[in-house]
Amino acid sequence: MRVDDLSGGEAGLQYPASRLVLEPEFGGNPGALRMFRHVPDSTGPGAPLLVVLHGCTQTARGYDQGAGWSVLAERFGFALLAPEQSRLNNPNGCLNWFLPEDITRGGGEAESIRQMIAHMLDTHGLDASRVFITGLSAGGAMTSAMLAAYPEIFAGGAIIAGLPAGAANNLAEALAAMHRAASRAPGGWGRLVRAASPHEGPWPRVSVWHGDADATVAVSNLDAIVTQWREVHGLEDAPEEDVEDGAARRVWRDRRGAAVIEAWSISGLGHGTPIKPGDGDDASGEAMPFMLDAGISSSHRIAAFFGLIPKPARKPVTRKPVPREAVVAHESVMLAQAEAPQIAPEQIVMAREGRLQRIIAMVKKAMGLHG
Q1: What is the Cα–Cα distance from 222 to 248, expressed in whole angstroms?
Q2: pLDDT by residue (tens digit) across 254-290?
């Protein structure tokens, strides 16, 4: 399916720091997404692949500019895939992480992303054993969904200000989960991952990031994600704890001593991807809405956790306070898709038959309206 005619919010926008190019054809594309990619000239056969999922109101190129992923790909020789939501699917550009048809193995947006990955592996001769995925907010929640639906594809995943797999199956549940992570009986979070595919292991490594001042996606989701993957990996809740570049880090290791789960909590940080702007050894990207200068580059740390780049040297730093305007700027954008006063049904154009009425019904349910 060709997707170069789908609206992706790119009109009139310039992203000079992004090297991403549109790939118009890659498969059946049941989720009607757009595919962007960057394969550096120095990338040879057997290189790893990183999949990057943007958040609400963002685009693939805009997120890349903020996080600096294509700069790192160019510097260290890995390939980059950046799926992008179409405004035909979601008027706020959010990946539909809470709709079962878009997160279930073999269907919707999740299947489109899988097809993009297969296209990248086949076309560029990349290493199928070194495929990784990361995302912010709705993209982080979709990262969780992808790790659950297709765990055999990924060697690792990184979830930034996101939610665990199976956190919601409709709009009302999504709102509740964003406000506070649900409580589940021991083993419950892990069972959701194990039930999402026939895979029985090995399981991906997982890195989780969250600011403790996040007013859009509650920080309780960080611990829910950790619990989910501890249960999948069969790990006790006995992490190593330390502080790196002013951020608190916990690490869970397997019996061989390998770090399989890490969780980063950043004091004072609102809803967004932690970055360290610049072009130094441990800096990349550009501060903008939802791309927050935290004095630590999550892109570098995630890439090092995946083994895509050398681990940055630890050194003491003085973190600048995160400006309050950066914390609260557009904090409610992710919620906008669920607030009835901001959703005008006549403006929502859905790409798939029946989606419009379903969304309207969900909004009414979330508001307690009937009929």
Answers
A1: 13
A2: 999 999 999 999 999 999 999 999 988 899 999 999 9
DSSP summary character for residue 129: T
Report d(CA 202, CA 88) in Å as an integer. Answer: 37
Bridge partners (DSSP) listed for residue 261: 206, 252
* Distance of alpha carbon 150 from alpha carbon 141, whole angstroms: 14
Whose CA is closest to 214, among 327, 310, 102? 327
Residue entry with tokens 């109101």: 57
Q: Model pTM? A: 0.84
Q: Are strands 205-211 and 259-266 parallel, antiparallel or unpaired?
A: parallel
User: How many C-beta neighbours within 10 Å does residue 209 have?
Assistant: 29
CATH number of the domain within which 230 lies = 3.40.50.1820
The DSSP code sequence of 320-355 is: PPPPHHHHHTTTTHHHHTT-GGG--GGG---SSTTH
SS3 356: helix
Question: Can you state the angle between helices 298-306 and 69-76, rounded to 10 degrees?
Answer: 40
Q: Residue 50 has which token pair?
A: 């990183």
- From 18, 70, 86, 137, the catalytic residue: 137
CA distances from 147 to 88, 143, 278 (A): 25, 6, 31
Per-residue pLDDT, 312: 72
Question: What is the C-alpha separation between 328 and 226, in angstroms, rounded?
Answer: 26
Q: Which domain holds residue 317?
A: 21-342
Q: Is 137 a catalytic residue?
A: yes
Question: And the tokens for 330?
Answer: 């557009």
Q: Report whether pLDDT(352) > 80.
A: no
User: Residue 87 and residue 334: Cα distance in Å, rounded?
Assistant: 14
357 in any annotated domain? no
- Residue 105 in domain: yes
| 163 φ, ψ (degrees, to nearest 5) | -135, 160
